[in-house]
Amino acid sequence: MKIMCVNAGSSSLKFKLYSVKEEAVKQKTIAEKSKYMEVLTSGIVERIGHEDGIFTIKKPGGYKNTKVLPVKDHHEAVDLVLNGLIQEGIVKTLDEIKGIGNRVVQGGSYFSDSHIFDQDTEDKIAALIPLDPLHAEAHLTCYHAFKKALPNVGEVAVFDTAFHQTMDPVEYMYAIPYEWYEKYGVRRYGAHGTSHKYLSQVAKEEYFPDQEHVNIITCHIGSGASLAAVKDGKCIATSMGLTPLAGVMMGSRTGDIDPSCMPYLCKRTGKSADEIYDIFNHSSGILGVSGISNDTRDVEEAYEKGNERAKLAIDMYASRIADYLMMYYGKLGHVDMIVCSAGVFENAPLYRKLAFKDVEEALGIVIDEKRNNEIRLGKEGIISSKESKIPVAVIPTDEELMIALDTVRVLGL
Fold first, then answer.
1. 24, 226, 231, 319 — which has fewest CB within 10 A?
2. Mind telling me the catalytic residues?
3. Closest to 20 in 3D by CA, of 32, 6, 5, 2
4. What DSSP line would sit under 212-232, residue for residue?
5. How far is it, in rounded angstroms, from Cα 366 to Cα 388?
6. Phi-psi bin for 62: left (phi > 0), alpha (psi -120 to 50), beta?
């Protein structure tokens, strides 16, 4: 059977089509299941809503076809993708697609697992638009576009927030008037849950298959970044908050910040709260401190040349990650493994080295420089030395694989 995984943004649509053999359903571990799954194609429609939209479709072996053309809305983007599958010979007919998995950023407190995309699911996502205006509307538009094109195919909503719903109130509540939580749902929801779930499961299955109780800190450190404390497969704490702005410093986001910065900056700059909020999201973090870029590779290049602001930005970035490592070690009591993943922590040895250097004395973590430099660009393995009191592993994340597996599971295929 073929399963489509989609990730809709406000002006983009990423997709990946899997072929899933029946044997995959029978397997117990993610690694075993993945042996019976094959990526047939992937790609993206960018600049939706513009005359110069970009449609890229890829196939295994390095094939890539890119077109620039008008893309009016997400309905046209979905048509482009589905027609592309046929034109490229990936499927003979669209009837071969048996399920569609939709990544949904915000599930609020409604969803602790992936769920069939029905009217009730749609209504709840719509109710959450104020919490996630950029993504939620795009998710619903994309859902309807696929429903119109493939009316008989089941769709599943896979929520970024679902994995974090196991947190206790003491973790997710904010110290604000309680009625704001009751009336407006103001609390910590977290993000990257599909990735944190994948990483903690794979770490348990591969490194502690016979150990009953396992405590893991998962580090999803990319342009957006978050950490999670996972106890026996359940999230007990995560760094992002009501929105993905909170937590560690990121490529262009502030991470945790004193709330009084907002009214103070509004008064001093004359900018509105919305304008300052936009700066907190898109012009802060590594970009704001370095003044160079939100791309860690550009800032690392400047760092190596002795640029002082680049050094400050990278040192701050590493320090904020170290803060959460210390905090989550305390919450878990002991840690069996720390997992590094996502764009920066899968590929950038410098950032990993500096983050763990900050906790070397306190936690007894020792990074093996040779392994740290070698394990990158899709490689998996241990980057800590034998002397390290806590093993540190790099595990490339695979959110699309989890979306495909959840789609098969929830639809009962």
1. 319
2. 160
3. 2
4. S--EEEEEEESSSEEEEEEET
5. 5
6. left
pTM of the complete model:
0.92
Instruction: Decide: 142 and 80 in contact? Cβ < 8 Å.
Output: no
Q: Give the pairing type, strands 154-159 and 225-231.
A: unpaired
Task: Read off the pLDDT of residues 339-374 as tens digits, 9 standing for 90 and up.
Answer: 999 989 999 999 999 999 999 999 999 999 999 999
Tell me the pLDDT band of 131, cut-offs 50, 70 and 90.
confident
Q: Degrees (nearest 5) of the Cα angle 223, 227, 229?
A: 165
pLDDT tens by residue, 257-266: 999 999 999 9
Tokens representing 236 are: 């007990």
H-helix or E-strand spanning residue 132: none
pLDDT in tens, 178-208: 999 999 999 999 999 999 999 999 999 999 9
Please give the single-letter amino acid code of residue 206: E
The set of long-range contacts for 236-239, using a CB threshold of 8 Å and a minimum separation of 24, is: 236/166, 236/167, 236/168, 236/171, 236/331, 236/332, 237/167, 237/171, 237/327, 237/328, 237/331, 238/164, 238/167, 238/188, 238/190, 238/191, 238/193, 238/196, 239/190, 239/324
Q: How far apart are CA 8 and CA 73, in angstroms?
A: 12
- What is the reported pLDDT for 10? 78
Q: How far is CA 94 from the centre of its chain?
A: 29
CA distance 313 to 319: 10
Paired strand residues for 63 = 59
How far, CA to CA in Å, does 139 sit from each of 73, 104, 127, 134, 146?
13, 6, 13, 9, 11
Q: What token pair was written down for 359?
A: 């906790």
Neighbour-count burial of 181, counting CB atoms closer than 10 A to its CB (0-12 exposed, 13-18 middle, 19+ buried): middle
* Helix pair 193-207, 399-411: axis angle to 10 deg: 90
